[in-house]
Amino acid sequence: MIQLEKLTKVYEQGEIRVEALKEIDLHVKEGDFMAIMGPSGSGKSTLMNVLGCLDQATEGAYRIDGTHVEELTENELADVRNQKIGFIFQSFNLLPKLNAQQNVELPMIYSGKSARERSQRAEKALAQVGLGDRGKHRPAEMSGGQCQRVAIARALATDPAILLADEPTGNLDSKSTEEILRLFEELHEEGRTIVMVTHESDVAKHCSRVIVIKDGEIVDDYRNKEGKRI
Amino acid sequence: MKELFQIALSAIWSNKMRSLLTMLGIIIGISSVVTIVSIGDGTKASMNDQLSNLSGNNFQVYMNYRLDSEVFEKAMITTEDIAALQTKFQDETIEISPESSVSGELVGNLEQPGATFSGASSGTLKMAKATIVEGRDLLDEERANKKNVVVVGERLAKDLFSGKSAIGQTLFLQMDDTSTGFQVVGVYTQKDKRTDSYGGFIPIETAQKILNQTYYGSLTIYPAEGQSIDVLSTRIVKFLESRHDAEGQDFYKVFSPEAAMATVNDILGKVTLLIAAIAGIALLVGGIGVMNIMLVSVTERIREIGIRKAIGAKRHHIMIQFLIESVLLTLTGGIIGAALGMGLAAIACSLMKVPRVVSMDAILYASAFSIAIGLFFGIYPANQAAKLSPIEALRHE
Questions:
Q1: Rounded to a whole number, what is the distance in angstroms from the first to the last CA of chain B?
Q2: pLDDT tens for each residue of B149-168
Q3: ipTM of model
Q4: Under an 8 A CB cutoff, do A97 and B311 touch?
């Protein structure tokens, strides 16, 4: 599904050169539910951005679902983001002026889906996250947990190869956190491939595989016994 | 595409006041250009109208009045000259008629008694597109005997004789110290003629007698079909000069309504263009205002752009979204401006008493031009938005 080989990301600002990722090798299999853990500044967000094709690696190979990402043009990267990846952000990143339904339809606008197909898929995705009756609500009219579920619906609507979640529960209270994590578990049981960045071990416990990053290198990689699948 | 339109529309709608103020620049620019061009067109139309009263396809050859008095005598156009011209240019002309007219004030109870009676030879009325509506035309016998008879214009007949039939009545024209009586034999109406002074036709011989003149100051020449006024007038001037032994001495000048019209149109066109160009500066300022607001709009929505890009929007999606927004702003402004401009032009034209020329072109050009402004001034901000990297745009607070 995802294959990283000697992936390196270097930030250069004048004299200062920061290696955020150092020759990362990683293989994410289909159906994995993986947590990326690490302290702040460890490079886990950088890794997430590279995985999500929001940022490009300086060196190394990145393959997703058979596509060599490092060879792609700007527009092709947009297509990968649009069709292969469902990205879920810590701060939801919904458009405040659009209602839930419209937010979920948004990625499909850019892939040129018909209005009919868009609304059908959006309704289905909203139902799947348990918000079938909230389509007309705007983000400001919903709780944080509901907003994050809209964002998950938006990620699911295009039926991507992988879901990437960057601290998806970071802005939520414990009750909403539980709900969101349960939703991820359900998606995992359906066979979705999920990669989630978190710094909370409580959250990581829900995942089947955990990798730990420190100073841009993977320092630990283990199967989680408490995870539903081992 | 439809969705991109909706995005742009909602962006404009959610900032109503700002959008309106931005449009105002375009509205002022477009409306002033449209107003000025419309007034220019109206003035042109009114001038052309007046010039065409000098009647269509003809020209005048007249003596250069600046000649010294001894040469002036030599240059006078005589009856013999006219006869020679008529023979020589028989095929090229329909009519060559000498001009002579008497002007004075009508005796009677009139507000503006000024009147000009033109000397007429046999074909003059027809050439001047004057048709007899009452009574008759001048007779050859009246011409030969230099009778004081007149065919008057409809308006004169109506105003002077207040409703009663003018035929057979005598009117008096006061010239300097003497008053001359004319018997009215006919009333004519003239197509498209609008002048402030009263008009009439008297036998040309009578006019010459009253003026105590034997020569003519000018000739009106009606060219035959297909004759070029330029060529014909040059040949006639040359012919006259050779008869007066004055080759190349600038004895005679040519006036053609057509050429005058062209000159007037040319000058008016240039003046209109100049003023419109100055008004165009307002449009330019408006366009810069649009660019400014679009840049603000982009800055405000960097995060939105980041989200859109993160979920798969391509460069051109963002670009088009912002271009549609700026074009919608300028196009709406342009249409409002064109409507406003036409309204202002209508008011101005009625105040200036010039005909209102409604041109759909103005709306069309205004729309096309405002689209162009929207594109031109929108492209920079739109490109700024489109080239943002998703990760940096998302980090923006």
A1: 28
A2: 999 988 888 888 887 888 88
A3: 0.93
A4: no
CB atoms within 10 A of CB B397: 5
Distance of CA B309 to the CA centre of its chain: 56
Q: What residues in A contact B325, CB-CB < 8 Å?
A: none
A206 is in which domain, residue-wise?
Answer: 2-223
Nearest CA in chain B to A104: B311
Q: Which residue has the tokens 């003239």?
A: B190
The label of the residue with tokens 């074009």 reads: B327
The three-class DSSP label of residue B122 is coil
Are A110 and B317 in contact (CB < 8 Å)? yes
Residue contact B394–A55, C-beta within 8 A: no
Q: Tell whether A112 is covered by a domain.
A: yes
Distance from CA of B310 to the nearest CA of A (A): 6
Q: How far is B311 from chain A (nearest CA, A)?
A: 5
Distance from CA of A52 to the nearest CA of B (A): 8
How far is it, in rounded angstroms, from Cα B50 to Cα B227?
24
Express each pLDDT in B43-91 by its tens digit. Answer: 888 887 777 666 567 888 888 877 777 777 788 888 888 889 888 888 8
- Pick A54's closest partner by Cβ from B14, B317, B390: B390
Q: Report yes or no: B120 and B138 within 8 Å, Cβ to Cβ.
A: yes
Number of independent structural domains in chain A: 1
What digits encode the pLDDT tens for the residues B125-135?
877 778 888 89
Strands (E), chain B: 59-63, 93-99, 101-106, 114-120, 130-135, 149-153, 170-175, 178-190, 198-203, 218-223, 252-255
What CATH number has the domain bearing residue A211? 3.40.50.300
Q: How far is CA A61 from CA A8, A9, A49, B242, in A?
A: 9, 11, 15, 99
Q: Is residue A229 part of a domain?
A: no
- Nearest by CB to A55, which of B306, B313, B391? B391
* Closest residue in A to B301 (Cα–Cα): A95
**CB-based contact B156:B113 (threshold 8 Å):** no
